[in-house]
Design brief:
binds 1,6-di-O-phosphono-beta-D-fructofuranose; alpha/beta; globular; nine-stranded mixed sheet; 43% helix
Length: 553
């Protein structure tokens, strides 16, 4: 029996690339500080909440010939939130930097996400242990979780666990919510003179944790390439059989970066972008009308098939849905402890909800199929987010389009045949073997996180940029977490959180779609990207995402 596939064996041998300054050695770095920073919005409120860590400068590393001593340090690491390809390499980079700095240093992995640091569940990461995970996908090395670190009691317990293990720095690998946790923990440790630093690493396939310094979150590259491969395969199938309309929902909780990138890589007939729907205040009916228009025109050309990409978070961006979901969030929060409601069957729950919503919202809620209503009432995640991966928006659209086309048929306005297939690509892409880009980027982020620790920084996000250039030219440094924060309503209360980066409708990536989509709708310009290549010509293996290329031309 084999224990490793041939690809697993080969990937274990891959040596990720580092920016030149980091490759010169962890103890041969110097730090350059920029100007003091401000949060993206709500400066006064954020400043008050982060008295000790607010306003720090952006920092950049340079190599120097003066080698410095690195005193012994124990570091803890947490994988937080949804899986993203490359997490194992962040830990590998962190481990290698830490051992290079001082072989006496130790790395502890907290198990099962942020709850590991609270409950004191950990595992020491040794060379043999990490070696088995290099360049592999998944977060199974130590597991992940979505516990929200925010209460005094949780912080106190984390402090006790760190003290017991002599840990003086914690690295939190996570998305916007997890790095919000990192910022809160960093502030609390400073306020309480704990002597423990906190550094974040930008993870999420969603691609919505980005700014000038964070060009992309890790995992986006691999996940979008995986989805693009699958879409390409479906396009070939559709173009061969010519009998189905495929509706493909693509992961990405809020922003549509993943759908947009996968769309640009494959050129399907329709790509919906949530941010555009919101900006143009398109109702669900209007979205359905515009899609039926394309379906009808294609049918007139004899094409009763096509490909539609639906971003996972679409439903929350449709204005009437957004307002209704916001009220629903407050209401479901209120009803959390109402046993009568909790023990009711779905039909009864719908009645209770409808009676408590105001009339406009009640009307929108009532108009939805029972399946979608039930999915909208499912538990929020620990950060208060609707679990959009469990809402079958692709099926909602199919249902509404089918009804509309039948009406049009009865009026003689549509003569085609509409057969549908629904797909959801999400979990398929989150644990793929990281692409060479993600393998290198993640290893660099982890290595760089230790460099930030070594310079005594806290409340920073590991930043590696200039990513469209070869790895040697990448720029390593750190961005203060408070710089990315604003105030948002969560669980009915205003909270400081890292602001999500949404698709910019005036940006080059959306413009590329806009310039081409009419052509793609009618003329099949399908691209077939194929599987991610790990070995072979650099033009194929080291390709960065279209988003990164367009944003950093
Ligand atoms: P993160 O923001 O934690 O990276 O997770 C993103 C994501 O993959 C979304 O795309 C998706 O909606 C969600 O996680 C699914 O969550 P879960 O894994 O809990 O089902």
């Amino acid at each position: 029996m084999k224990t490793l596939s041939p690809l697993q064996q080969e990937r274990l041998k891959y040596q990720p690339k580092l920016p030149k300054c980091l490759a010169n050695g962890i103890n041969s770095l110097e730090l350059e500080e920029g100007q003091a920073t401000e949060s993206v919005r709500d400066q006064e409120a954020i400043k008050q909440l982060f008295e000790k860590t607010y306003g720090k400068p952006i920092v950049t590393f340079k190599s120097t010939s003066n080698k410095k001593e690195s005193p012994v340090k124990n570091v803890g690491v947490i994988l937080s939130g949804g899986q993203a390809p490359g997490g194992h390499n962040v830990i590998a980079g962190l481990f290698d930097a830490l051992k290079q700095a001082n072989p006496e240093n130790k790395l502890y992995g907290f198990l099962g996400g942020p709850s590991g640091i609270i409950d004191g569940k950990y595992q020491e990461i040794t060379k043999d242990f990490i070696d088995a995970y290099r360049n592999t996908g998944g977060f199974d090395i130590i597991g992940s979780g979505r516990t929200k670190l925010e209460t005094e009691e949780q912080f106190q317990k984390s402090l006790e666990v760190c003290k017991k293990l002599n840990i003086t720095a914690v690295v939190i690998i996570g998305g916007d919510d997890s790095n919000t946790n990192a910022a809160l923990l960093a502030e609390w440790f400073v306020k309480n003179n704990a002597g423990i630093q906190v550094i974040g690493c930008p993870k999420t396939i969603d691609g919505d944790l980005k700014n000038e310094q964070i060009e992309v979150s890790f995992g986006f590259d691999t996940a979008t390439k995986t989805y693009a491969e699958l879409i390409g395969n479906i396009q070939r199938d559709a173009n061969s059989a010519k009998k189905y309309w495929h509706f493909i929902k693509i992961m990405g909780r809020s922003a549509s970066h993943v759908a947009l990138e996968a769309g640009l890589q494959t050129q399907p007939n329709i790509v919906l972008i949530s941010e555009e729907v919101e900006e143009k205040k398109m109702s669900l009916e209007q979205i359905v009308t515009s899609m039926c228009d394309i379906i009808t025109k294609r049918a007139e050309m004899g094409k009763n098939f096509g490909i539609v990409i639906v971003p996972e978070g679409l439903i929350e961006f449709i204005p009437e849905m957004k307002t209704m979901i916001a009220s629903l969030n407050d209401l479901t929060h209120e009803l959390e402890k109402d046993d009568d409601y909790q023990n009711s069957a779905n039909e009864k729950k719908f009645e209770i909800i409808t009676s408590k919503l105001d009339s406009d919202n009640a009307k929108v809620f009532s108009s939805l199929p029972a399946l979608i209503k039930a999915q909208l009432l499912m538990d929020r995640d620990p950060h208060g987010n609707v679990q959009v991966s469990r809402i079958e928006t692709e099926k909602l659209l199919i249902e509404m389009i089918r009804t509309r086309l039948n009406e049009m048929k009865a009026q003689g306005k549509y003569t085609g045949k509409f057969s549908d297939q629904a797909h959801f690509f999400g979990y398929e892409g989150r644990c793929a073997f990281p692409s060479n880009f993600d393998a290198d980027y993640c290893y660099s982020l982890g290595f760089n996180a230790f460099a930030l620790i070594n310079f005594g920084l806290t409340g920073y996000l590991s930043s590696v940029r200039n990513l469209t250039k070869p790895a040697a030219e990448w720029i390593a440094g750190g961005v203060p977490l408070t710089m990315m924060m604003n105030m948002e309503k969560r669980h009915g209360e205003m909270k400081a959180v890292i602001q999500k980066a949404l698709v910019k409708l005036d940006g080059p990536v959306f413009k590329e779609l806009e310039a081409n989509r009419e052509d793609w709708a009618m003329n099949d310009r399908y691209l077939f990207p194929g599987a991610i290549q790990y070995f072979g010509p650099t033009e194929v293996c080291d390709l960065t995402s279209v988003t990164l290329q367009l944003e950093h031309k």
